[in-house]
Amino acid sequence: MKIGIVSDSHGSYSHLDLMLSHKDAEQAELWLFAGDIAMDADYLAMVTDKEVIRVAGNNDWPGGRLPDYETVDIAGHTILLTHGHLFGVNFGLKNLQQAALDVGADIAVYGHTHVAVEENIGGVLIVNPGSIARPRDAANGSFMVMDLQPDKSPVVKRIRI
Ligand SMILES: [Mn+2]
Q1: Is the pLDDT of residue 46 over 70?
Q2: How far is ligand 1, taken at its centre, from the CA of residue 95, in Å?
Q3: Are 110 and 130 in contact (CB under 8 A)?
Q4: Separation of CA 17 and ligand 1 centre (Å)
Q5: pLDDT at residue 61, as a whole number
Q6: What stretches of 16-67 adopt beta strand conformation (E)?
Q7: Which domains does the chain have, with CATH numbers?
Q8: 159: CA distance to ligand 1 center in Å?
Q9: What is the pLDDT of residue 15?
Q10: Could you tell me the distance, in angstroms and rounded to a whole number, from the CA of residue 113 to the centre of ligand 1?
Q11: Of 111, 106, 71, 70, nearest to 87 (Cα)?
Q12: 56 alpha carbon to ligand 1 midpoint, in Å?
């Protein structure tokens, strides 16, 4: 099953539209939205007609409307989805990796830094799709499509818009 992963769109529907014009995005059967800004997840769900699993970012206030974390079971894998600011991701991924282990997740998805990451740390695949609208690692924003199959390692594709 292919899932789309996007974060930190910060209210830019035009960047989400650009993302959705990619054929990789069309293949996503489900989306994960890692926070900032919550309303963009509503927009994504509306235009794709797909389920969008979402968490709150540090810029999503007032708090309480969205959860800080979600765990998602797909094709024999468990994903911890969270924005990342609560785990200090600007200073390393150790806390996030431990949180994933604590909930039995083999994959952790976060955002917040606006820098795309794909790293395997101690048995946990940790990914950040980067920011679709305000990248800090390149001129153009990025998102990811992850292919999840039972008993296989996830295959991650990063796409620059
Ligand atoms: Mn943020």
Answers
A1: yes
A2: 17
A3: no
A4: 21
A5: 78
A6: 30-33, 52-54
A7: 2-160 (3.60.21.10)
A8: 20
A9: 98
A10: 7
A11: 111
A12: 9
Per-position b or e across 49-74, b if 16+ CB within 10 A of its CB = eeebbbbbbeebeeeeebebebebeb
Distance between Cα 152 and ligand 1 center (Å): 31
Question: Kind and range of the H or E element at 43?
Answer: helix 38-48
Distance CA 137, CA 131 (A): 9
Q: Which residue matches tokens 């996830």?
A: 154
Helix (H) or strand (E) holding 4: strand 2-6
What digits encode the pLDDT tens for the residues 62-76? 666 899 999 999 999
Q: What percent of the chain has pLDDT over 90?
A: 97
Q: How far is the CA of 36 from the centre of ligand 1 (A)?
A: 6
State in Å: Cα 131 to ligand 1 middle. 9
Mean pLDDT value across residues 84-96: 97
Whether the upstream peptide bond of residue 53 has omega within 30° of 0, thus cis, is: no
pLDDT value at residue 64: 62
